[in-house]
Amino acid sequence: MPEYAPFETLDIAVILPCYNEAPTIGDVVRGFGDALPSARIYVFDNNSSDHTAIEARRAGATVVQERRQGKGHVVRRMFSDIEADLYIMADGDGTYSPEDAPQLVATLLSERVDMVVGVRSGVREDAGRSGHAFGNRAFNRLYRYMFGTDFSDILSGYRVFTRRFVKSFPAISSGFEIETEMSVHASQMKLPVAEVALDYGRRPAGSSSKLSTVRDGVRILFMFVRMMKETQPLRFFSLIAGLLFAASVFFMIPPVLEYLTTGIVSRVPTWIGAVGLLLLATLMMVTGLILDSVAAGRVEQMRMAYLNQPARRGEMRAGSRERTRRTDRPAATRKDAEDKASRVKGRRVKAGGS
């Protein structure tokens, strides 16, 4: 594909987290090798009990073992260990087509963004599991309400990142909720992102999904709550303060009305409880104000880590010319340095003779 020839000037790493994907990983690795011949392909094996590592090596991938169980642990290891200009992350189960990788990379470069997400157009037919389809719709709507409208498929595992994104991403998740954390990170940092609609394949025979509809759905939901607390603490604690304040007013009204009509308060425990709830509501509000400043400081730190990385966005053809200039430079530079050294030496000899 000649239109993607400029990719050869970039250091691209394909990173594939895998757990028991022996039936499919070989074809996936070979597919990425054909789609992006200049890319380096890494398979991070997460305690597979089958021949995933062997099949990956046979296909030409570099295999790395990650003993901590969970996709989040694998992604953290991949992002910390691999050095590249661009990173392509996909699953090893064959549901994402390697042939779409050049399109994702081209989108990242042409639109000058830090992350491109492959939106799964056929995710509702994921092995016929209606629970997955419902969960995807619910979580995407919840995300848009809580964090913004940057994404329409926050759970997609097919993504392309710049080095800036990877090296500024904290990666605190341990399981399948890692994609949610990636999306929140991009929204919180206000990073430029893009989406590309892609076909989502079905698992071949002999391959089974590692995703549990209920267990991983609950973990993703808790990740939403955690990310809201970490990134929007004022909003999070304001909601709690509002609920406590409403409860306080509810329990406070009867004693107040009784006092206004009779001049006495017979429901002393109710009054004390209402005042306690009011104090807790005030405490929650103050906590939100303090943590909001802390969250702003964390964003500034991540922003500095982001800016400390070189930008490689939108440099397909410019990057090719820059590399050409760099390779043409050394010979002339050495000759100029030798001539300069000879002139300096000549002046020194002349000065010593006089």
Automatic annotation (TrEMBL):
Segments for region (Disordered): 311-354
Keyword Membrane: yes
Domain of life: Bacteria
Transmembrane segments: 236-257, 269-294
Biased amino acid composition, Basic and acidic residues: 312-342
Listed GO MF terms: transferase activity
Protein keywords: Membrane, Transferase, Transmembrane, Transmembrane helix
Residue ranges annotated for the Glycosyltransferase 2-like domain, each copy included: 14-166
Gene3D superfamilies for the chain: Spore Coat Polysaccharide Biosynthesis Protein SpsA, Chain A
UniProt feature, compositional bias: Basic residues: 343-354
InterPro entries: Glyco_trans_2-like, Glycosyltransferase_2, Nucleotide-diphossugar_trans
Coiled-coil portions: none
Protein name as annotated: Glycosyltransferase
